[in-house]
Amino acid sequence: MNLDTTTTASGGRLDAQIPLTLDASNVSVSFRSPRGGWNTVVDSIGLGLERSQVTVLLGESGSGKTVFARTITGMAHPAAKVEGTVEFDGVDLLTADRRALRRLHGDRIGMVPQDPNSSLDPMRRIGGQITETLLQHGKVPNRAAAVARATELLTLVHIAEPERVLHNYPHEISGGMRQRVAIAIAICCEPELIIADEPSSALDASVGVQVVRLLDDLRVRMETAILFITHDIGIAALIASKPHDRVAVMLGGRIVELGFAHQVLHNAQHEYTRALLAAEPSANTARGELAVVPDEVRMRRDWGPLRDVEPGHAVASTSQEVTA
Amino acid sequence: MSSVLAADGIVKRFGAFTALDRVSFRLERGRTLGVVGESGSGKSTLGRIVMRLMAPDAGVVTLGDDDLLSMSERQLRMARRRIQLVPQDPRHALNPTMTVQQSLAFQLRAQGIPSREWQARSVELLARVSLTADYLHAYPHELSGGQAQRIAIARAIANNPEVIVADEAVSALDKSVQAQVLNTFAELQSDLGVALFFISHDLAVVEHISDDVLVLNRGQVVESGPTRAVLDDPKDPYTRVLLDARHSAEAV
Amino acid sequence: MATPTKTPAPRFQRRALLSRLPLRSQVALALVASVGLIVILAPVLPIADPLSGSLSERLLPFFSDGHVLGTDSQGRDMLSRLVYGTRTSLIAGVVPIVIATALGLVIGTIAGLAGKVTNTILMRGVDVMFAFPGVLLSLLLAITLGVGLGTLILALTLVWIAPVARIAETEVTRIRELDFVTVARASGAGLPSILGRQIVPVALPAVLAFSTSLVGANIAIAGGLGFIGLGVPSPEPELGSILQEMQAAIYSDPGLALAPVVVIIALSMLFPLVGDGFRDAISGRGQES
């Protein structure tokens, strides 16, 4: 069976009948190189996201994961050259006009960014930032209802004393709480899709874990699809807690392994994934002997197309593999 | 035998806020003390104080047999050779207008090493952190996070210190890159016998690299002792909270 | 021991600074350099004496015999007056900025490193200097010291110290908190070394970028002051005062009358182009991509 690059590998989809919340095909993103020519940051990636499912985009800095995530929500960098299609409820997000995108963002697509300090407006009280989004997307009939809903949301994200926090400015609450507020804003209109870009990386380990657990909990309740970006395997394992959750490993702008979480994390087939898994610091590894991702692996760009190695699990082949 | 670095009763207040409340510890030669706690626990402040980059309101810091805080300027200048810092953010750890060679030379010059020796010493230092001599000509913005941190480490060992204070030195790196930097720290400890004062919010990292741990919560030492003893049988609820985070992220 | 990683040998290439400038900056630099060269070489160039003229040759038009750009109302050669006038304008435009940059850098650096009290004293002093309008200051100095190039340069220098000091203070305050400075302090290096090698070089690009952007404005201001008679006294040529003299000729010979304005505007636009280009090229080294 000869499969070509993108979505055709079944990667985590056993039932092709389930409708996709978001379907990205052949997405490529390039930027002009200072020396002329184009620098391809995302190379022909296909990915389908389902309701109630977490898809982890696992990769190191520079793998293109953030650029991919922003691009497929229609927020590509203005200087980028974008190719491919991204279907969301019949609309191609890559070609949609700004008004249509503004209606979707915050309402049906929510974003939880990495840095809670820059995502919240430092000059406005927390309450105002939440109620504004609710009113803007017409989710509530009036201000009083918006305030009530905002209070509910803060309780939902486990913020104690929500009435007090509504009146706080961002700098008056802790980093972990700011991130919870960012999540509250992202979910306030009950979106179908949430993009979470390293939501725990800027937080202390213990606080980050709580934030991730919160996101997991919410997606079960609201049946949201989540695209979760991280470089941390422990966090990936934590968020991809349900049997149908998936992990996509990104390297150099391409997906090199894609499958259900238990497949990728416990039966990794690609040498890069294996190297990432081996590099986790644990009490058991002797000091000085942590496995390191070899640079030759990290810098390779000539991986072949994704091929199924078991149902739902696809791996980018190396050039030595024989095509069936 | 005296410890290489010790503190006794350190107190630090910022206005009405007490950042450190009677903190004491001992770091033995060639060993690693992990200082763990969440943001705001005071661990970075402690790191600054033991390097005499900040003055405490009370307490004593001893470097070997010497009282660090009451030294004269001249004595301090020489003592500085013995304790060095590796900071958190690789983007700001190196001067952006200086090449790697120039950054290393600054460190060597500060302790009176003659300029004719700089290049050879620098090449040696880079080799110790597994980087080739080509990197001498690089500017910081041309380096990856992991490379910049390794150069920050090379700079720290330039004058053969007895102690390195690593202040969240791997926290800003991808997990996969942390491994290489942690290995570097371990190799240097075993090759050079340097002691490590390793500050981190990440218990998994602290557990891996430390012989002893000091758990800080809001400026107070809530627990301390050999790593395995503390983490296998935590007495303080705060330690348990930190452990819980590490366990749940260890699903692999 | 751990598996050693084989990193392929990296090459850190450098392109010469000048070749990294964008095209418009290179062109601007070439033009400014040409102008600079001409005015420096003015005394040995085959042009007439800008101060001598005979009334019998007043207001000759372009391309007159011996006077390519004609003569002014005193019979002096216009080309020569423009060349020497540009020279004076450039001196009045650039020298105050150079001095103000040096002084502003010193004041700003001291304030940036000092404790709260010293910083407050210095920066409030800077604020006071900010309050003084350049024209008023020039007038006061001209009255007390007499009109002349020296007075003009003094007045303009005083005007520009304050803004440079502010930029320098902001930069130094920001830089001294960065980790590499903390490590430098911990290395045992002395304050002069930390200041000269670690702090000032990082502050310099921002300060210099700001200063070069001031040159353009300052050339125009110097011309303006010359126009109202606070520049160099006649018969010394200076673009602003030449413009003054040629006012009467604006209807009969607009091209000639406006020539000084054209030069002033051109220079005040070229300098920022050069400065911006250098700033971008240099900070490509200091910033992350």
How would you portray this structure in words?
The complex is a heterotrimer of chains A (324), B (252) and C (289). Chain A has 324 residues and is α/β, with parallel strands linked by helices. Helix content of chain A is 33%, strand content 23%. Chain A starts with 21 loop residues before the first strand and ends in an 8-residue tail after the last strand. Mean pLDDT of chain A is 87; it is low at 1-8. Chain B has a domain at 5-93 and 162-248: P-loop containing nucleotide triphosphate hydrolases (Rossmann fold, 3-Layer(aba) Sandwich), CATH 3.40.50.300. In chain B, helix 3 (100-110) runs parallel beside helix 5 (145-156), helix 4 crosses helix 5 (145-156) and helix 5 packs parallel to helix 6 (175-192). Chain B is globular, with a radius of gyration of 18 Å. Residues 1-6 of chain C have low confidence and may be disordered. Chain C is mostly helical and 289 residues long. The longest helix of chain C has 37 residues, at 191-227. Chain A binds chain C through residues 288-292, 294-296, 299, and chain C through 1-3, 5-8.
Write the layout of secondary structure elements.
The complex is a heterotrimer of chains A (324), B (252) and C (289).
Chain A: E1 22-32, E2 38-49, E3 54-58, H1 65-72, E4 81-88, E5 91-92, H2 98-104, E6 109-112, H3 116-119, H4 126-136, H5 143-156, H6 162-166, H7 175-187, E7 193-197, H8 205-222, E8 225-230, H9 233-239, E9 246-251, E10 254-260, H10 261-266, H11 271-278, H12 295-299, E11 306-310, E12 313-316
Parallel strand pairs in A: 3-8, 3-9, 6-7, 7-8
Antiparallel strand pairs in A: 1-2, 1-4, 4-5, 9-10, 10-12, 11-12
Helix pairs in contact in A: 4-5, 5-7, 7-8
Chain B: E1 5-14, E2 17-27, E3 32-36, H1 43-50, E4 58-63, E5 66-67, H2 73-79, E6 83-86, H3 100-110, H4 118-128, H5 145-156, E7 163-167, H6 175-192, E8 195-200, H7 203-209, E9 212-217, E10 220-226, H8 227-232, H9 237-248
Parallel strand pairs in B: 3-8, 3-9, 6-7, 7-8
Antiparallel strand pairs in B: 1-2, 1-4, 4-5, 9-10
Helix pairs in contact in B: 3-5, 4-5, 5-6
Chain C: H1 23-41, H2 78-113, H3 116-131, H4 134-145, H5 149-175, H6 179-186, H7 191-227, H8 239-245, H9 254-286
